[in-house]
Every structure is written in C-alpha cells, then in structure tokens.
PSA aminopeptidase
Amino acid sequence: QARAGIISTVEVLKVMEAFVNEPNYTVWSDLSCNLGILSTLLSHTDFYEEIQVFVKDVFSPIGERLGWDPKPGEGHLDALLRGLVLGKLGKAGHKATLEEARRRFKDHVEGKQILSADLRSPVYVTLLKHGDSSTLDTMLKLHKQADMQEEKNRIERVLGAISQPELIQKVLTFALSEEVRPQDTVSVIGGVAGGSKQGRKAAWKFVRDNWEELYNRYQGGFLISRLIKV
C-alpha cells in the first residue's frame, strides 16, 4: 500500500517496530528486504543515516538474543536468521557487531578460528562496507586462495559492499578479469550496483563502457537480462 502511495511509509515503519520480539526467520527476511528497498530509495536523500539508525534499533534486540554462536538444539532457520541479522546490523554500522566481525575476521584470516559458512557472508559484508584498500586486498587474496567455488562465489557477491569510488572501480575491473568465471561476472557487477549509491552510478557507467564485450560474452542469454535487471 505504501509503494502504491495509498498509505504513508511512516505507517509501515511503525508496523515494523512492532516485530522486535519476532523469532521467525521468514518474517525477518521480509522485513530485511523491505528495509533494503527503503534504504536504496533514501540513499538519495538526507534521511539515509536516519534509516540506518532505524535498522539498528529494530534488529539489535534479535541480534543480542541470537548472539554469534549456535545454541544447542538450534535448527537450520536459526542459523539463517543469525546470518541475516548480523549482516544487517554490520552493514548499518552497529558498533558491537562491527567490532566482533573485525575480531572474528582477523582470526579467520590468520587461521586461528575459521568462520562457519553461515557467518562468512555477513562478516565479509560488514568488513567491506566499513573497510579500506587493505580490506579489499585481503578479500581478493582469500578469493584467490579459495579451493571451493562456493567460497569464491560468496566473496564475489559481497565485494560490491566496498564504498570508496576508486575501490569500487577496482572491483568492477576484477569482475571482467580471468579470476572470475564468465557466468559469475554478473554477480560481481550486481553486488556493486546494489552496494551503494556510488556503486550504482559506477556499475551503470561500467556496463555502458563495456557493453560490447558483455553483450558478446552472453549473446542475449539469461545472464544479459539479469545484468540489465540489476
């Protein structure tokens, strides 16, 4: 209704606030998706920082209840929910989540304590969103060293979270390099397009500048339509 202009988005945000004690993954996934759309729209306004504060307020209680480590008797959906919530809090700049993500990432890179598969994406996203060139270099090194394609894809999907313009360009150049399988290039560009306002502009320019190569590469298949969509 808010998207159709029938009710105010303020009403939607009030409804969202009522879900702070919600334990269900599917509900949180929907809230996260809708808040993501709102964040994207508000990234062009003065309210972007305020929506990040709202995200932190809504997701903090469930984040504290879940913690970082699995609890005895937990199901698959709890693990998914933990990844979703920590990723959301980390991207929004929640201080405690950011600090813990940095600590765990350092241990992971040094081989002291390897991150579980369901925590890698949220930790990677958090580090990149608030990271610098050395963070990106470390992620690209992890990508090169990964012996499983699943881990390579996981890293490729989150690289676009980096926010500095020159590093965004580095990620886009990487997308077309031999390091990335042709069928995965779209995931990297899509990650940049969805990562930030700067990323959207840079990805759009990059696609236009490299249109011939991209079009020839995918020959009108489903990947070119996916690229246009993102």
